[in-house]
# Entry
Amino acid sequence: MAHEYGITKPKGYNVTFHYNPNMERHHFGQTHPMKPWRLTLTKSLVTSYGMNFAMDNYTARTATYEELTNFHTNDYVDFLATVAPQPTPLDVDNMHPDLKFNLGGSDCPLFEGLYDYCSMSAGSSLDAARKICSKQADIAIAWGGGLHHAKKSEASGFCYINDIVLAILQLLRVYPRVLYIDIDVHHGDGVEEAFLSTDRVMTVSFHKYDPNTFFPGTGALDDNGPRSEHNPGAHHALNVPLNDGITDEQYKWLFESVISRCVEKFRPSAIALQCGADSLAGDRLGKFNLLVEGHSSCVEFCKKLGIPMIMFGGGGYTPRNVARAWAYETAVAINQHKNIPTQIPEHTPWRERFRHETLLPTIEQILGEPRQNRNPQKKLQDIVQHITEQLRFVSH
Ligand code: ZLV
Ligand code: CA
Ligand code: ZN
# Structure
C-alpha cells in the first residue's frame, strides 16, 4: 500500500523500526527534563508522513532478566526489579533515604513502573540488534534506546540500563568489529567504559566538554582509555570535546573528518549510532546551534558508508525538536528525506505543538538569535589532528 506522499518499501534494502507504545506511560516527575512522551510525538510524525509504509514495524518486546544481566550485575538488576517507587511529587524532603546504585536521586528517580520502562528500552534495542545480526535489516531504528550513561552496577544521568552496551554485545556475536558513534550533547561514558579493554569496539563521542560545569565531566580529547601495552583496547576510545554554539557547517566537517578516518583504520563491520537530540539548537539542556539538517547529516554520512547500522535515540529535552529530528532521520534511513514536504502534514496529531508547522525550522525560528559560537576553527583542526594520531595505533 502506498501513502499520499508515494512512500513505498524499496526492494533490496530493509529498514526496521522498533517501538513500544507503553514507554510513554512512564514519567520521571513533573520537573524532570526526560519526557518519554517525546517518543509518541516522534512516532506520530513518522506515521503522518507515511514512513511506516517503507519499513518493517515491530512492537518491541521487553528484555528479559537474563538479557539485562548480560552486562549489568544481578544485584543491581534485582534491586531495580524490586525497589519501591518514591512518593510523588518528588522534592528534596522526599528523596529516597539511600542512594543505593545511585538510584532515587533527582537525576535517576525511582518512578512507578521503572523496571518495565528499562526493559522496554532495552528490548527495543536488542530487537534492533537481532535484526542486524540476522541480516533482515540494513538499518534498524530504536528511538526508545540510547541510554548511554548507565554503568554495570549503577544508574547515571537519567539512564538505568545501558541498552546500547547490550545491543553491541549482541552485534559482537556475529560481527568482528563495531564502531560506536555518539552525537548526544553529553559524553557517552557508559558505553566507552564498557568496552575500554577490547579492540573489537571503537567508541567515538562528540559532546560538550567542561569538566567543572557540564555532566558527566569526562571525555577530554586525550582520554583514550588505559594505555598499557597489554590492553588491546588502547587507542580505541575517541573523544571530541566541544564548546557551546557549534554550527551545522563545523559539526558536519568535524564529523565527516573524524568518522571517515575511523572507518578507514578500524574497518567496522557494523555501526551503532546514538542520535541524542539534545545537541540540537533550542534544547533545554544543550547549547549548540545545530539544526535538523546538521544533526541528520551525520546519519546520512553513516548510511552512505553501506555498513549495517542501528540508530538509537538518547537525550533530547525539547520534545518538538526531538520529534522533528528523529522523524527526519527516519526519512534519511528510508532515503525519502528529499521527497517529503517540509510542511508538517495537516492530519498530524498534536500538530499545534510544532511551532512554525515545518520539519526544518531555521535557527531564527528556533532561537531568535543563535548562541555565541565558542569553537574556533583552530580548535577543531587540533581535534582532527589528535584523532589522526590516535588512529596510527589502530589497524585491522
Ligand atoms: O542526555 O536534573 O548535572 C542521555 C543524556 O545524556 C547533573 N546531572 C548531576 C550532577 C549533579 N547533578 C545535578 C542534579 C540535577 C537533577 C535533576 C535536572 C533537572 C532540571 C533541569 C536539568 C537537570 C539536569 N541534570 C541537567 N543536567 C543534569 C545532569 C544529567 C544529564 C543527563 C543527560 C542524559 C539520556
Ligand atoms: Ca556524545
Ligand atoms: Zn544527553
Observations:
- The chain has a mean pLDDT of 95.
- Residues 33, 106-107, 147-149, 157-159, 184, 186, 215, 276, 278, 285, 314-315 surround ZLV (ligand 1) (CB under 6 Å).
- The chain is about 30% helix and 10% strand.
